[in-house]
Design brief:
251 residues; alpha/beta; nine-stranded mixed beta sheet; 7 helices; 9 strands; globular
Length: 251
């Protein structure tokens, strides 16, 4: 009976949502194969100080999305949940940085310049693609790239310099988080599957964060979040997720 209750408690806390992109799907599959292991922050092969001057770090608006998982396993974004999660994550980031006496420069989206906005959006998408690639190839030894086994040298490219020119910041902090929650139908499907020994996915909370050198686009610090518990819709669990994600951040 305790086992059944434990299964139900895990199911009701979540399953995961992610954009319909092949690379992210591969990243999540790799995470599932590797299991929910402790976070391990990665640092660039290039020298990086233990602490970066917080006055020159640009905080990019966190990329947060929350969804509901249907009985069939499809993930449908929920605008209300996403808005709450976005607000909670931003608030948690602000609290954390104040506690570290870090005064960050908030990112401001370009207004009245579609070309500049397009370039910024492409850079955000580049971060998502690079971060997903790191998840696949650095956190799963079976998929490790031979040329990067002993090194951590990833970059967003020279386009990152634009953010430095416009903001005056030397570094940028990117945060990406995805979370979702089972519908009643999905709970029933997973529960019935468990009774018959079928491993139907319940889901996880997943995210990653990067500190990027805007002088050359190099990712100098990276960490992931993989958790089977938590709820970004409420402030305290959102703060716990942010604290875990930014462990060892040199700020």
């Amino acid at each position: 009976m305790n086992t059944v209750r434990h299964i139900l408690e895990r199911i009701l806390r979540r399953p995961i949502a992610h954009p319909a992109r092949e690379l992210l799907a591969a990243a999540l599959a790799a995470i599932a194969l590797s299991g929910c292991v402790p976070n391990e922050a990665l640092r660039s092969s290039s020298p990086l100080p233990e602490r970066v001057n917080p006055s020159v770090v640009l905080l990019i608006k966190p990329d947060v999305q929350l969804s509901v998982m249907t009985a069939s396993g499809l993930e449908e974004p929920n605008a209300e949940w996403t808005a709450a999660g976005q607000a909670n994550v931003e608030r948690a980031l602000g609290q954390l940085m104040r506690e570290r006496n870090a005064s960050l420069i908030p990112y401001v989206e370009p207004q009245g310049d579609p070309d500049k906005l397009g370039r910024h959006n492409q850079l955000m998408k580049m971060h998502q693609a690079v971060g997903s690639t790191i998840l696949v190839h650095k956190y799963n030894q079976a998929l490790a790239l031979p040329t990067k086994t002993e090194r951590f040298d990833w970059t967003l490219g020279p386009g990152a310099r634009q953010l430095r020119q416009e903001s005056g910041a030397d570094y940028a902090l990117f945060v990406y988080l995805r979370d979702s929650y089972a519908s009643a139908g999905r709970v029933a499907v997973v529960f019935v599957g468990a009774l018959f020994g079928a491993a139907i996915p319940g889901g996880i909370q997943v995210g990653f964060a990067s500190l990027v050198d805007l002088r050359n686009g190099e990712v100098v610090w990276f960490n992931r979040l993989v958790s089977g518990t938590g709820d970004l819709r409420t402030p305290e669990p959102a703060r716990q997720a942010v604290d875990s994600l930014l462990t060892d951040l040199p700020l």
